[in-house]
Amino acid sequence: MIRAQVTDRDALAARLPSELAMYLRAHEWTMRERSGTGVQWTKTVGGDEFEALQPQESTVRDYAARVRDLLNVLAVVEDRSQLEILGDITSVSMDVHSVRAFPSESSPGMIGLDDGVQAFESVRSLVVAAAYAVSAERPRAVQPARKSAEVLRLLREVRIAPPAEGSFIVAVHTPVPPRLSTAAPALFEEEPVEPFERRVSLRLYDAVRAAHNAANDALVGPDGLDAFTDAVPTGVSANLCEALVGLGGEAGHPFELSLRLAPSRPLRARLFEPIHFRRDHLPVLASAAQELRERVPEEGAVVVGNVVRLHREGAGTGEISVAGTVDGDERLRRVWMNLGDEDYASATRAHQDMLTVSVRGDLVRRGTRLYLTNPATFRVIAGDD
After folding, report:
1. What is the C-alpha to C-alpha distance for residues 379 and 334, in angstroms, rounded to an integer?
2. Residue 143 and residue 108 share a domain
3. What does the pLDDT average to over 194-219?
4. Of 181, 311, 356, 379, whose CA is between 20 and 30 Å from 80?
5. Considering Cα of 42, then 13, then 5, then 106, what sign does the dihedral take?
C-alpha cells in the first residue's frame, strides 16, 4: 500500500507546536522530558517503545524538518500516511462533520455545479439550525430567519475543508476549546458543561439522527408528521429537514453524515455511527418541512417592504400583500395579511406614495402563499429612515 509523504515545507511549518502537543496527548503519548526547543514523548505499542521529539518553538530555522521527523514516527506507529496524520493534526481542536454525497452521474470526487453549490448552502443551513436549537430558550418546529449574535459568531468561526475524493465529501470544522483536565469526574460529580461549540456539534448530529429515524417511521407508519413534531425538542425543524433535502441535490442522490469529535476534547461513552440517507428518505423530509411550515407559524416575524396589492370590499378589514424581506433575510418574498380599518388606510397611503412599511406577526405558509397572521405594530417608514 502506498503511503503519501509530506515534503511541502510550508505545509509542515504551518502546524503549531500546540497542535502537535494536543495530538500526541490525545493519542496517548506520554511526555518524558522537556528541553528549551523540544519535548520528548514516548508510547508503547505491542511491547515496542517508540520515541518522538516534538519541536516546541516554531521560529527555529529547521522547524519544518523537525515536524517531518515527527510525522515519520507517527506514520510508523499508526500505520497511516503522513498526509492523513497531518490533516488530523490540523483539526485536532475541531469537531468535524463530514457529509459524503453519492451522485451517480459524476466521477468519484466530483459533483454537478448546481448540486455542489446547493450542498455547501445546505451544510451551512444545517449548522445554523443546530446552533439556533442550542441557543434558543425552546426549540421551534419553524425557526425564525433572524438569528442571535451567538449563532452568527459561531458561523464566523466554522471552517470548510476542501472536498475529498471517494464520492464527494464536504467537511465542516468547528473549533472547540481543548479540555485541559484529563481526569474523569468523581462518582457523584456532574459532567462539566460543554462549551457552546461542542453542544452545537452534538445537537447537529442528534437532530440529523432524529430526522433520519422520523423519516423511517413515516415510511411505514400512518401518522408520518407526528414522528417529526415529536422530535422537535431534539432539534428537528422545517429548516433542518430542508437542509437535508438540499444535500441530496436536484436528483435526490443518497448521502451520509458522520461526526468526529476533536481529539483535544474527548467525550466518553458516545459512539457516532454514520447516518445514511437513501433516496426515498428525501421526499419524506421535504413533505415534513412543508407540513411543519403550514401547521406551525413562525412567531414574531417582522416583514419590511412595499405594499403591492390592496383589496377590500366595503369598510372594515382589508387584505394587502407586501413584497419585501422577513426578519432581515435578503430573499425577496411576498407576504399576505389582513389589516384593520386604520392600518389598511395607512397601507393605502404607503402604496400611493411608494413608502416602505413594517409589520410584525406570525408567519405561516398556506399552499404556495405566505400569510402573516395576528399582524401588529404596522407602521409606515419614512423615505429617509
Report:
1. 18
2. yes
3. 96
4. 181
5. positive
Residue 383 has pLDDT above 60, yes or no: no
Domain range spanning residue 326? 298-381
Residues 173, 53 within the same domain:
no
159 with 271, same domain: the answer is yes
pTM: 0.80
pLDDT surpassing 90 at residue 287: yes
Distance CA 218, CA 248 (A): 19
Give Cβ neighbours of residue 115 (< 8 Å, ≥ 6 apart): 101, 103, 249, 250, 251, 253
Assigned C-alpha cell, 48: 515496542
Cα separation of the two ends of the chain? 67
User: Which of 147-151, 185-189, 319-323 shows the highest mean pLDDT?
Assistant: 319-323
Residues 6+ apart with CB under 8 A from 294: 364, 365, 366
The DSSP result for 133-158, as a single string, is HHHSSS--SS--SS--HHHHHHHHH-
Predicted confidence band at 118 (pLDDT cuts at 50, 70, 90)? very high
